[in-house]
């Protein structure tokens, strides 16, 4: 799966809520006048059909299809009807459905998008019991709460790690079983690969400019910095820390020669698959594609920024939310909530086959997951980071996509040597501040 959260539509929250209100949806905000999740989730004598929208393709899509089939086989009174929309069209179509009064009963919403959609998502309130709520890893569960409301149930977290080609490490004279775990060791490894092989050493993005923000955020947080100020009204990275990380990015394609100063979609992913790139930053979803290659790969924590004082990596979460719909019955609301609970807490397929880190504590502790190849190769490391609160989510605002785009665009110019780090960060901060004023 190419999980490009920066590819979502740019929706202004004010116009979104206005449009949604015109459709009679926003008037339901805060409504939670129905009971908790029942065992069968039927909520009545009749069978409930839950319209469920997802954006998952590739291996993720196959895993979710299997999960939905298992749910339908195990429930007599609820049937999930899954509809997959292309990820790059997903949020546009969800927006259209919400404002047009034709919302699905259950939908995937990234944790980073919850502030955009909060006024048209059903607060779960009493629908979710305390027992259900405590079944998730705390650092992940916190990401579905906003302004005191429980807005969704977390399916996973998908942090970024550094995947590496063991064959290139051997070619460079590095120990393939001992990846770098410190800033000094990481720098030495990349310099050695650049000087001793004809391979590229490292890329902080797998797919394109939009993903540069992920490693930038990780390194910024490692150095003690922040993207936004505490009240999320201004950029907080136009300072010594923010410029220093930008200079680090510039050096990768400049004096260090770790990568080429070229921006083109999927260049780095293709180079990794071809055996021409030693280390690439990518998320949990990359386990399957990496495992399909002819070479053996490893993965290590990205806590390698020089001068880093803290341990952080970028992360986001897929969550399952119930969009508001005044035409939906209480029985169907309950059935949708049961479907969300079951999909997030009752099957380990999302971890063993999709490669994501499940949000459910019981799934994380299950023998099936812990004895799987994916646990050994990646998820044990990602789980350790999640349990240590080392996950850095982007600050959530109603203009999250716009302000992220401003940062990513300028990081791309810095990375491709088109602008100086200081100037690029100044431009990024100006763009972010302008976007935040539109809230």
Explained architecture:
A hairpin with a 2-residue loop joins strand 4 and strand 5. The protein is of the alpha/beta class and 439 residues long. Helix content is 42%, strand content 13%. The chain is built from 19 helices and 15 strands. The strands form five sheets. A five-stranded mixed sheet has the order 2-1-3-13-6. The chain has a four-stranded mixed sheet with strand order 9-10-8-11, with helices on both faces. The two termini are 31 Å apart. The chain has two domains: 5-158 and 316-392, D-Maltodextrin-Binding Protein, domain 2 (3-Layer(aba) Sandwich), CATH 3.40.190.10; 160-314 and 399-436, D-Maltodextrin-Binding Protein, domain 2 (3-Layer(aba) Sandwich). The protein has helices at 13-22, 58-74, 87-99, 114-117, 130-133, 138-141, 166-171, 183-196, 212-222, 240-253, 267-273, 287-291, 330-345, 349-352, 361-364, 367-370, 373-387, 400-415, 421-436; strands at 48-54, 78-84, 106-110, 145-146, 149-150, 153-154, 156-157, 160-165, 200-203, 277-283, 297-300, 313-314, 318-321, 357-358, 391-392.
């Amino acid at each position: 799966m190419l999980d490009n959260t920066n590819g979502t539509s740019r929706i202004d929250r004010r116009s979104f809520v206005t449009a949604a209100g015109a459709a009679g949806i926003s008037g339901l905000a805060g409504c939670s006048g129905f009971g908790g999740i029942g065992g069968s989730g039927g909520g009545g004598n009749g069978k409930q059909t839950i319209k469920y929208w997802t954006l998952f393709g590739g291996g993720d899509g196959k895993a979710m299809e299997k999960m939905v089939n298992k749910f339908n086989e195990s429930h007599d009174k609820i049937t999930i009807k899954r509809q997959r929309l292309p990820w790059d069209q997903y949020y546009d179509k969800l927006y259209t459905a919400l404002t047009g009064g034709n919302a699905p009963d259950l939908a995937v919403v990234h944790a980073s998008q919850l502030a955009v959609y909060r006024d048209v998502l059903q607060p779960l309130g009493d629908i979710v019991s305390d027992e259900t709520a405590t079944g998730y890893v705390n650092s992940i569960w916190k990401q579905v709460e906003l302004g005191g409301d429980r807005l969704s149930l977390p399916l996973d977290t998908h942090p970024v790690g550094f995947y590496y080609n063991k064959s290139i490490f051997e070619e460079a004279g590095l120990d393939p079983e001992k990846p770098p775990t410190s800033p000094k060791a990481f720098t030495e490894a990349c310099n050695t690969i650049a000087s001793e092989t004809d391979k590229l050493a490292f890329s902080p993005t797998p797919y394109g400019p939009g993903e540069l923000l992920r490693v930038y955020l990780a390194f910024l947080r490692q150095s003690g910095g922040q993207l936004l100020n505490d009240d999320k009204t201004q950029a907080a990275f136009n300072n010594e820390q923010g410029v220093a990380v930008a200079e680090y990015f510039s050096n990768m394609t400049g004096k260090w020669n770790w990568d080429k100063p070229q921006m083109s979609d999927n260049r780095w992913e293709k180079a990794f698959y071809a055996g021409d790139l030693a280390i690439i930053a990518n998320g949990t979803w990359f386990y399957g594609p990496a495992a399909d290659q002819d070479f053996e790969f490893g993965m290590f924590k990205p806590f390698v920024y020089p001068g880093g004082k803290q341990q952080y990596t970028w992360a986001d979460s897929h969550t399952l939310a119930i969009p508001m719909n005044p035409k939906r019955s209480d029985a169907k609301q309950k059935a949708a909530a049961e479907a969300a609970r079951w999909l997030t807490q009752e099957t380990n397929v999302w971890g063993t086959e999709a490669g994501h880190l499940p949000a459910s504590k019981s799934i994380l502790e299950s023998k099936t997951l812990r004895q799987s190849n994916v646990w050994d190769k990646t998820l044990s490391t990602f789980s350790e980071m999640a349990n240590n609160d080392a996950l850095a989510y982007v600050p959530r605002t109603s203009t999250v996509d716009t302000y992220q785009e401003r940062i990513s665009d300028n990081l791309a110019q810095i990375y491709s040597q088109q602008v100086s780090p200081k100037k690029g960060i100044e431009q990024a901060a100006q763009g972010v501040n302008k976007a935040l004023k539109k809230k």
